[in-house]
Amino acid sequence: MHQVVISGTGLYTPPHSISNEELVIAFNTYVEQFNADNAAAIAAGEVTALAPSSAEFIEKASGIKSRFVMNKEGILDPKRMRPLLPERSNDELCILAQMGVDASRDALARAGRTPADVDGVIVACSNLQRAYPAISIEVQAALGIEGFAYDMNVACSSATFGLQAAINSVQLGQARSVLVVSPEICTSHLNFCDRDSHFIFGDAATAILVERADCATSEQQFDVVGSRLKTSFSNNIRNNFGFLNRCSDTGVGAADKLFVQQGRKVFKDVCPMAADLISGHLAEHHLAASDVKRFWLHQANLSMNQLIARKVLGRDPEAAEAPVILDEYANTSSAGSIIAFHKNHQDLAAGSLGVICSFGAGYSIGSVIVRKR
Fold this sequence. Notes:
single chain, 373 residues, alpha+beta, Peroxisomal Thiolase, Chain A, domain 1
């Protein structure tokens, strides 16, 4: 068995950002038009009038202040309310692969590696662009990597589940190093006409290089102490879009073919599950919560992160203990905890322990304990 390290992380940030204020202007314009168009039906009690949103409501509900997106124009068009992303030909690099390639190149550069040093690519994300050929194989080909590649989807926990798969491959000697890539265009699956969720997601891509410790040369390395996964079926977060239930079969934009969740139920269910998983994982390695210097939690909702950290630590976390990036990036699904790790690990001293933890639809929860070399 080989010792495994995380030797580099990469991030692709889309070129456009939307503030809460901008999003609210578009949403409220849509609401006003909808209520005007349906005034008679609303008066007759046949249709429920839509309520406007506000920047204050969004920040209070989520902690989000803005989000990066692949397309801004379509989202902010009250007559469209969804991103405008032209389909690329089969001869062009697909948009998810392009995002993944950019994040991967960043991770390789930080690790001091080239594609020739990599034996595998795992694209682990919530929102895959197609069924096949695998996005991962397209990323592999674009980077010029020999070896293997495959896609996997465990919703918001895809990156941590992908990390465990990569760790296993390297530990067992099946690969010298593996890239775990998480390109997320969450805005393409978001219902921007729904007041309760139109603000939740943003777009981004991350990459992590996992490699044998005796091969790694980068200045910033983290030993992998252990990983732990858990799933439990729930309908409280769901996205029904797929080839068996296309929007064209049920009406374009059918609400149940986009992201839907029962937020209060998710909060009540997931917070204790995630806290228990982290605590149990630490105990399994004879570690206490007080031994951990940093928790890089899934960036879904500020209140969820604060409650999970509080349950694990037995007190309110300090800002540096559980860093937040969702105020700027919003929820980027599987990429969120990795963005938090990418942006908040350089200051840790050698020997410092940290936990990367994701949680989301499924339900799915993943925990990876790391120690800075």
